[in-house]
Structure formats: structure tokens, C-alpha cells
């Protein structure tokens, strides 16, 4: 049965003297190799060099605070449920009296971990969050040698209280 019409008859003709020497074929191969030496390389020397990303690039997450510096996350768990890679682990806690300046609502995340080895940077956690608490940023997750170092804890994810240290996610949101 013939599946395509691209089949070719195999030639059994005798090789010529120059074909038996293989020199023309070797010279042809070297010509291709040398021609690539003078072309601009496709690779970059990461991490010294970083490629320019698209405005909608999805990188390392950030847990946002409100204008008063309180954590937005209420540990509702919707991001963890939406995550197709099951990369998010949350432990909820109850806000105590006197902690109103730390957490915006009565519940907050005592523990909030993202396993960056599982994460596929789909952005579904960001879409699911009803509290504007989690966003993906244009930051690249740093390379590492230990698997444990790819579990990002709440301390690694939550942004600084100081306004000047905050991560601007508005450009990505605008171009989405
Ligand atoms: S970006 Fe996607 S895979 Fe990564 S934590 Fe969020 S929902 Fe999970
Ligand atoms: S980040 Fe958003 S969706 Fe996830 S637990 Fe916190 S408030 Fe809920």
C-alpha cells in the first residue's frame, strides 16, 4: 500500500572515483561548518546577557500589598485550586488583634509556597485571585543547583512594604 507519492527509487549505480574518496562530501560539510562561524550566534551568554522579553512575558510571581503596606492575600486558596500544576501550597491563619496593619482581611497566608519546578507560568493563579494579591512579573526565576531552592516561600514572593521597592505589574496588565 502506498501512503504518499514521495518515495524514491534507490539508486544502485556504481560510485565514481571522486565519490569513493569522499573528499567532495567532506569539503561540502566543512563549507557549511565554516559558513556558520561567521554568522551571528543564536545563543546568548545568560545570565550576563538577558534577552528582551515580550511585554506580556510571565515570570516569577509577586504577592502584592495594598497602599498601606498590608498583604492583599486572604488565603482563600482559589489560586491553588486553579493551578493545573499543583504548584501552590497555602496554610491559612487568622489575623489577631493588633495585626490589622499587616494583613488586609481577617484571614491571611501563614505559609504560601510556589514550587517553581512544577509551575508552567500559565498565569491561571493570577486570573483566579479575587483580591489582586498574586501576579506574575517580568522577573526570571534564577537558576539554581538544588531542587529545594526552587520552592519559593512567602518571604521570597511578597513585595516590600516600602513603596519604592514595589514591583510594577501595570505594563504587563495593560498589554495583556
Ligand atoms: S502560573 Fe500556573 S502553574 Fe504557575 S503557580 Fe500559577 S497557576 Fe500554577
Ligand atoms: S493569592 Fe489570591 S487566590 Fe491565592 S489565596 Fe491569596 S487571595 Fe486567594
Question: Descriptors for this entry?
Answer:
elongated, alpha+beta, binds iron/sulfur cluster, 3-stranded antiparallel sheet, 6 helices, two-stranded antiparallel sheet, 176 residues, Alpha-Beta Plaits
Question: What would you note in describing this structure?
Answer:
With 176 residues, this protein is of the alpha+beta class. The chain has a domain at 61-164: 2-Layer Sandwich (Alpha-Beta Plaits). It is 23% helix and 14% strand. The chain is built from six helices and five strands; from the N terminus they run ααβαββαββαα. The chain has helices at 17-21, 23-37, 78-82, 124-128, 154-157, 170-175, and strands at 61-63, 88-94, 107-115, 134-136, 151-152. Strands 2-3-5 form a three-stranded antiparallel β-sheet. It has a two-stranded antiparallel sheet with strand order 1-4. The longest helix is centred in the N-terminal third of the chain and has 15 residues, at 23-37. The chain is elongated, with a radius of gyration of 27 Å. The two termini are 50 Å apart. The structure holds iron/sulfur cluster (2 copies).
Give the SSE map.
Layout: H1 17-21, H2 23-37, E1 61-63, H3 78-82, E2 88-94, E3 107-115, H4 124-128, E4 134-136, E5 151-152, H5 154-157, H6 170-175
One iron/sulfur cluster binds near residues 78, 79, 128 and 131.
Amino acid at each position: 500500500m502506498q501512503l504518499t507519492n514521495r518515495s524514491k527509487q534507490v539508486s544502485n549505480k556504481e560510485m565514481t572515483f571522486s565519490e569513493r574518496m569522499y573528499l567532495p562530501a567532506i569539503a561540502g560539510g566543512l563549507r557549511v561548518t565554516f559558513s556558520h562561524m561567521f554568522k551571528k550566534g543564536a545563543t546568548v551568554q545568560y545570565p550576563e546577557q538577558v534577552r528582551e522579553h515580550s511585554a506580556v512575558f510571565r515570570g516569577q510571581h509577586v504577592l502584592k500589598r495594598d497602599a498601606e503596606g498590608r498583604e492583599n492575600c486572604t488565603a482563600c486558596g482559589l489560586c491553588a485550586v486553579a493551578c493545573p500544576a499543583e504548584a501552590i501550597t497555602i496554610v491559612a491563619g487568622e489575623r489577631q488583634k493588633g495585626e490589622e496593619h499587616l494583613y488586609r482581611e481577617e484571614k491571611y497566608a501563614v505559609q504560601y509556597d510556589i514550587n517553581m519546578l512544577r509551575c508552567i507560568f500559565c498565569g491561571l493563579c493570577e486570573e483566579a485571585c479575587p483580591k489582586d494579591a498574586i501576579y506574575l512579573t517580568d522577573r526570571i526565576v534564577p537558576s539554581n543547583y538544588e531542587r529545594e531552592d526552587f520552592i519559593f516561600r512567602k518571604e521570597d514572593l511578597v513585595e516590600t512594604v516600602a513603596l519604592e521597592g514595589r514591583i510594577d505589574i501595570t505594563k504587563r496588565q495593560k498589554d495583556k
